[in-house]
């Protein structure tokens, strides 16, 4: 969860750029973790892998440093052209952005002490991603959540030390995730990109 470290001072309203390199490497780390949870989650990790790969391609092709520069570049072609593209960086970032909200809610739940991770995960999902997913994806996701390890096991496989240490790490990481989420939310609101198909 290092991807938020370089976005600038915490809490700076509207300030800070989300740097693409740490953003994508953060996602790669989360995906590796998800893959380690087992094959039930592979339909989720495959989608996330494809989205990160698409963004890496755009990053390498155009040399974008930040989410802001990617958005600026794609908007230059005009909003209609952007909406017509199914492979745009913007619509892809939007999917990850919605997933980041899920992550924020889920980790807050994990930190709070609720032992049933599947309940935490379902609640976080229903409050974020679910409204953007068709019925069949919601169903598959909800079934997969039942395979999540218990809170104790989950904190253990995070591999950051004792349970107390894992909870302390969450307390440090969650605000950074929130910062990346708010900066992106503001950027996408400003350019009216929150409903890109
Ligand atoms: C620890 C448990 C992990 C649960 C992960 C919770 C997220 C559930 C997401 C279910 C996604 C199902 C597969 C694909 C869905 C795609 O249709 C959508 C929309 O993309 P489009 O079709 O428009 O291109 N994809 C997404 O919503 C992005 C999902 C990314 C999920 C990343 C999860 C990373 C989790 C890390 C966990 C530590």
TrEMBL record:
Coiled-coil regions in this chain? none
Keyword annotations for this protein? Cell membrane, Cytoplasm, Endosome, Golgi apparatus, Lipid transport, Lipid-binding, Membrane, Nucleus, Transport
A single GO BP: negative regulation of interleukin-1 beta production
Which compartments is it annotated to reside in? Cell membrane; Cytoplasm, Cytosol; Endosome membrane; Golgi apparatus, trans-Golgi network membrane
Q: Which GO terms describe its molecular function?
A: ceramide 1-phosphate binding; ceramide 1-phosphate transfer activity
Cellular component per GO, a single term: nuclear outer membrane
Bilayer topology term? Peripheral membrane protein
Q: Which domain of life is it from?
A: Eukaryota
- Glycolipid transfer protein domain location: 19-159
Pfam families in the record: GLTP
Q: What is catalysed by this protein?
A: N-(hexadecanoyl)-sphing-4-enine-1-phosphate(in) = N-(hexadecanoyl)-sphing-4-enine-1-phosphate(out); N-(9Z-octadecenoyl)-sphing-4-enine-1-phosphate(in) = N-(9Z-octadecenoyl)-sphing-4-enine-1-phosphate(out)
Q: Does the keyword Cytoplasm apply?
A: yes
Spell out the family assignment given in the record's similarity comment: Belongs to the GLTP family.
State the name under which the record lists this protein: Ceramide-1-phosphate transfer protein
Species whose genome carries this gene? Geospiza fortis
Q: Which gene encodes it?
A: CPTP
């Amino acid at each position: 969860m290092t991807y938020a470290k370089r976005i600038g001072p915490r809490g700076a309203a509207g300030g800070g750029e989300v740097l693409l390199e740490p953003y994508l490497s953060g996602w790669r780390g989360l995906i590796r973790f998800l893959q380690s949870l087992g094959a039930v989650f592979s339909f989720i990790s495959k989608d996330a892998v494809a989205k990160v790969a698409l963004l890496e391609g755009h990053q390498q092709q155009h040399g974008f440093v930040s989410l802001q520069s990617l958005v600026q570049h794609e908007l230059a072609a005009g909003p209609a052209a952007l909406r017509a593209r199914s492979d745009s960086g913007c619509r892809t970032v939007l999917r990850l952005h919605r997933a980041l909200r899920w992550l924020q809610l889920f980790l807050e739940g994990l930190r709070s002490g609720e032992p049933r991770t599947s309940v935490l995960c379902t609640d976080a999902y229903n409050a974020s991603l679910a409204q953007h997913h068709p019925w069949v994806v919601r169903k598959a996701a909800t079934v997969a959540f039942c395979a999540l390890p218990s809170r104790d096991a989950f904190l253990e496989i995070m591999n950051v030390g004792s349970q107390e240490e894992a909870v302390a790490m969450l307390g440090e990481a969650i605000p950074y995730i929130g910062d990346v989420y708010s900066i992106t939310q503001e950027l996408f609101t400003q350019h009216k990109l929150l409903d890109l198909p």
